[in-house]
Input
Amino acid sequence: MRTPFVAGNWKMNKTVEEARLLVADMLEGLQAVSGVEKVLCPPFPSLLPVAAMLMGTDIGLGAQNMHWEDAGAFTGEVSPPMVAEFAQYVILGHSERRAYFGETDETVNKKVHAAFAHDLTPIVCVGETLEEREAGQTEAVIRRQVEAGLAGLTPEQAAALVLAYEPIWAIGTGKAATPEEANRVVKDVIRGTLAGMFGDEAAQAVRVLYGGSVKPNNAAAFFEQPDIDGALVGGASLKADAFTAIVSAAQRD
Output
């Protein structure tokens, strides 16, 4: 049985003071939810203050990105050891990083290996654009992203990571894939590709999340799908009541 997993990706939102207020608003509600792995992913300046607020709770902390090198002349970048000092998770390969900052499957792969080298759990994002979807390329695109992004991992490493299926056409648009459609992609394409790379046991162990306009009123429908294990939540994670409701919806009886 895979433990449900819900992460809030705050993106480039919230000053440190605003981050403190948001965490204070959601802390009690999130801690009341059991049986769900909960992770907050604020911007880099808020990692240290949020880490302090989460200490002693069952809520994890994640960064939104990192470089693959441990140190060096990479102005503006943040290294794996810097992230690992405060966080347990790191989001890698988000579609916005790929679209706006030139990330490729190959650089995502370097970051995944670096995450494991520093005991960080990678949350690896995959997904197709609207153009790719309309051209019938969903399966080919996601298969390529999984194969290239996870190349060189051991089955044990693969089983330990988290994947997030985020159809790019659904991110921040208010349009969500249907739960059935998302589950089909996760089951047939993502788990199918993982099974070919790492074996059935590892493929069934991986938590696969859905991301893309997840809200309190549609989260339960996604979580009811047998191959969707939670969500990577964007906009709704910036509101304490909305994010807590989504986390609560992931609880299993």
